[in-house]
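Journal club prep — side note

Before the paper discussion, L.F. wants everyone to see what a predicted structure for a comparable chain looks like in token form. Sequence:
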Amino acid sequence: MEMAAPNGEKTRTKVQFVNFVNLKKIKPYENNPRENDGAVEYVKNSILEFGFKRPLIVDENLVILAGHTRYKALLELGRETAVCVIVEGLSEEQKTAYRIKDNRAGELTLFDFDKVAEEILSFAGSGIDMAAFGFEPPKVDPPEIDGVDGEEASDLTPGCVVCPRCGKVVE
């Protein structure tokens, strides 16, 4: 299949298809540079809350190109299969570059914290616990308010969340 590359040149796409794959057949990439164990619990919680929405991306040998954290979460949840995008025809250099690119791309994005707060407030009271996905309430001293001691002031402090990546507090 021919497609236009970002620079406008025609390029051949690699063969890819989607399939359910037994997790026992999937192989984590042995030199995965991402240390992701700290995120597995949050991904498990996300899968339990919303379902499994992002397939693993594997090569023709079922070695993970993207999705190591999701893979670990599925194993810990006792799942037997995963939806996978199986990509064939990439060189070893392309596979390595894709793994690095996939991990780096998310780090290059930024949160608009006003919008994050607005979005979180839009489902306040729904029972969705954002702490289960890594947005922890900050540990801050209650504000000093004239005529109100610290215990009472903490009751007046609005709810906040903290970005798990940068630590910014969203009130």
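L.F.'s comment for the group: The CA atoms of residues 18 and 85 lie 4 Å apart. Keep this in mind when we get to the figures.
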